[in-house]
Amino acid sequence: MDQSQVALPDGRSLDVYFSGLAGAFPIIYHHPTPGARLPNPRTERAVHEAGLRLVSFSRPGYGDSTRAEGRRVADIAADVRWLLEEFEIERAVTWGHSGGGPHALATAALNPDVITGVAVSSCLAPIDADGLDFFEGMIPDNAAEFELSLNDEVGLRALLQAQADEINQDPLGRFLSEPERARLSPEDAQKWRAALGEGLRTGVDGWVDDMTSLAHPWALDLMAISTPTFVWHGQADQNVPSTHAKWLASRLPDATMHILEGEGHGLTRTHLPQILADLAGTAR
Strand locations in 64-140, DSSP E? Predict the structure, then answer.
């Protein structure tokens, strides 16, 4: 395992985390919203078991990554490009879950010479998606966050700060069921808490900026993604309704869609090995 700060041309820095065999094919992991460079232990193990090397980083404003106020989804591609060049990575696959999904798509669309495959799980469609009712089927809490993200940063920040306080008090309770918490070893529980707390350790700027960027046009062309793209989604997802996945798959040139009956937003808890197997098959 290795942690590093990457200096960017505009004076910012990214907080980066590597793990796995040094010679293994890299996977650029885009964390959910909120989140950070530290993956949970289950994700990290699955990546290693798939024969891939994890390359993870905190998006701007999370953890020790410098904030980029006003960033768009598409802007992440340039940061990833610089990271790859800094570590002399010539080819990689990429995966993003939930709020990380659009950033994985941006990485693939704007770095076509580097990215050989992309997977998204529980991923949003763009808010300006033609023919899609963005809010239909979405739980009220999520819809309210997006409504605030459109035109009320003060209200959004207050809401997210209240949620961050709750997460900081009991990070596992917000994201894991009681049976899942009971099955965790003390070591894994500690890693989970570190992963969930890292992104919010320095405040909610990254979360505010993520929500704002996701609630506005992404500034990228999905049709520019020429690499194999795997869209995974739970049919029962109420955080991001499965209509979003169906819309994405219909607009991506080389998409394979998996809509999973009975699965919700946390489908990676049971299907991450298959998602990673899809990606490993494109590594070249």
Answer: 92-97, 115-121
| CATH code assigned at 240 | 3.40.50.1820
Residue 100 · residue 33 · CB < 8 Å? yes
Task: Provide, for the chain, the percentages of residues in helix, strand and coil under a 3-state DSSP scheme, each rounded to the nearest 5.
Answer: 45, 20, 40
Q: Report whether pLDDT(44) > 70.
A: yes
With contact defined as beta carbons under 8 Å apart, do 243 and 132 qualify? yes
- pLDDT at site 27: 98
pTM greater than 0.85: yes
Q: How many domains does the chain have?
A: 1
- One-letter amino acid of 218: W
- The reply to whether omega before 253 is within 30° of 0 (cis) is no
Cα–Cα distances (Å) from 252 to 206, 228, 278, in that order, read 28, 9, 16
Amino acid 1: pLDDT: 57
- CA torsion angle 279 282 283 284 (round to 10): -170
233 touches 242 (CB < 8 A)? yes
Q: Which helix (H) or strand (E) holds 26?
A: strand 25-30
Which of 11, 167, 229, 173 is closest to 159 using CA atoms? Answer: 167
CB 43 within 8 A of CB 272: yes
Residue 88, domain extent: 2-280
